[in-house]
Every structure is written in C-alpha cells, then in structure tokens.
Design a protein that fits this description.
This protein is α/β, with parallel strands linked by helices. It is about 30% helix and about 25% strand. A seven-stranded mixed β-sheet has the order 6-5-4-10-11-13-12, with helices on both faces. A three-stranded mixed β-sheet has the order 7-9-8.
Length: about 280
C-alpha cells in the first residue's frame, strides 16, 4: 500500500520527466534495500551521496522528503532557509536540490546525527550551508537531550523526557541550547522546524522578540506526546494567527488516530505570511 501511495505521490507532485527519474531511483533503492551484500551505510540519489548509520531510518526519511515531498513549496524564489532539526542532512540536500542558490543555516543537537550532517554537507559540496550542533528553545544555556538507544542518530532525539525514561538504560546527553531568534536578523524565506516537542518554545520566543515578522514561510512539525502536552495546539496555532500567517494543518501518520507506535501525534503545518504565495504538499 505504501509503495503505491508513494508512486502516486511522485507522479502527482513532479513533472513527468522528473517523476520518471524519481520512480527509477525509488525502485532501485528498494531493490538494494533487499540485497544483503549492499553497502548498508551509503546511498546515492541523483548526483547526491548520503552516508547514514541506519538504513531503514534513512529510507523512511528519504521517502518522506524526496518521494512524497513533505517539504514541497510553490514559492517562487527562495534564497534563505533555516532547517531546525536537520538530522543527517536529507532535508538540507533536498532544499539545495530545489533551491541551489539558497543560503541554509541548519541545527542538529544529536552528536551522532550532527557528525553525519557535516559529512553529507561536505561530500556533496553544498555551498552556503552553515551547521550548528545546538538544540533550540527560548533561552541560551545547556539542556538534556534524550535519544533512542536502539537507533544511532535517531530522528526522535528530543529535549522532552520520554515516558518510562531510564537513566541507566539510556543516559541523557548534555547539549548546548540556543534561541533561534538570535540567528534571525534579516528577512527569512523559509523556516523548517522539526525539533520533537520544543517547537512551541521556539515559536513563542520568535513572537516575543518580534523576529517572527521577518519570516515569510514556515513548514512546522507539531508534536503532541500522549499525556505530556507541553504546548496545546490551540495556543501554538494562535501565535501564527496573531502574526498574520495563513496555514493548513494535516496529520503526518496515515493511521486513523495519527498516532505513532510511541504514542506520538504529529501534525504538519504549512504557513505563509504573504497571501500571494502558495504552500503545501
């Protein structure tokens, strides 16, 4: 079912010649995923090379971003991008593929993921890309980062303590915490944010510092952990309302309750400040 949905997504999102190329890449990687002798920590798509620690996670994120176009925009010229929660850099490569002349500032606090992020930026010769090993919030300092011990460089690393957390099984990491508002001083075309529960703190800080007025578009992942609602969705969306953003909101997970196996509800929010610009998937 996912296979056919992905194929439909490819042909509905891309122009015909490009959709054929992406379909060929998608099928090629699926076949390679099943080959035991394939190098399981390196893959190419088009002219880009990715190194990664976990193939299933890599293929899942690659499928979301490149094949299902989770971060697709119809926005004309995009010259400045902030990628908050860049993980190993698949989203950074996607943005550079779509907007080769864009200047990108990206953040990734998980040290394991950050090492792969730096490697993927360097080996793909991505120019005008800066990477910082920071978690983001509403103050500067240090903060505990909780990671999944079962998946190296996991995309689920979060500054929110998970339910049933055991310091013995998975010690938290101490990582630097920074305010995103300190990095926004000029107009920003796109803010992409996937920071596993801290998005409410960042958005509130952008409003309080008035830096939100410099942002033209946002692609946000809103995370709601069962029983641990730090930022109710109504309050989260009201920040966008108060600051003149129009937005659409949709569940990320395909099952009827939009709940991941770990009890996490995730919603994609596509927001724009300029009514002449269309955003969405």
């Amino acid at each position: 079912m996912i296979f056919f949905k992905t194929i439909y997504g490819i042909f509905s999102a891309y122009h015909f010649p490009e959709s054929l190329r992406l379909l060929a890449e998608y099928i090629r990687i699926i076949i390679r995923n099943r080959m035991p002798f394939v190098a399981h920590h390196k893959e190419r798509i088009f002219s880009y090379t990715f190194e990664f620690p976990d193939r299933p996670q890599f293929f899942g994120v690659l499928s979301e971003i490149f094949f299902r176009r989770l971060y697709a925009l119809r926005a004309g010229t995009v010259t400045t991008i902030i990628d908050a929660g860049a993980n190993i850099g698949i989203s950074v490569v996607y943005f550079k593929w779509q907007y080769p002349h864009a200047r990108i500032t990206c953040f990734e606090p998980n040290p394991q993921a950050f090492a792969f992020l730096q490697k993927n930026i360097a080996q793909n010769n991505l120019h005008d890309v800066r990477a910082f090993p920071y978690a983001l919030g509403n103050k500067n300092g240090d903060i505990a980062l909780f990671t999944d011990p079962a998946v190296k460089a996991s995309t689920s690393a979060s500054t929110m303590q998970p339910t049933g957390y055991s310091e013995e099984k998975s010690p938290a990491l101490s990582v630097p915490l920074r305010r995103l508002s300190d990095f926004i001083d000029t107009p920003l075309d796109l803010l992409k944010m996937d920071i596993e529960g801290a998005e409410g703190d960042v958005l509130r800080d952008l409003e309080e510092t008035k830096k939100i007025s410099l942002v033209r578009m946002m692609i946000l992942e809103y995370h709601l952990y069962e029983g641990r609602a730090q930022h109710p969705m109504g309050q989260f969306l009201s920040i966008l309302d108060r600051n003149g953003f129009r937005y659409i909101c949709m569940p990320l997970f395909p099952n009827i309750n939009n709940i991941s196996p770990k009890g996490l509800r995730t919603y994609m929010i596509y927001a724009k400040a300029d009514k002449n610009i269309s955003v969405g998937t």
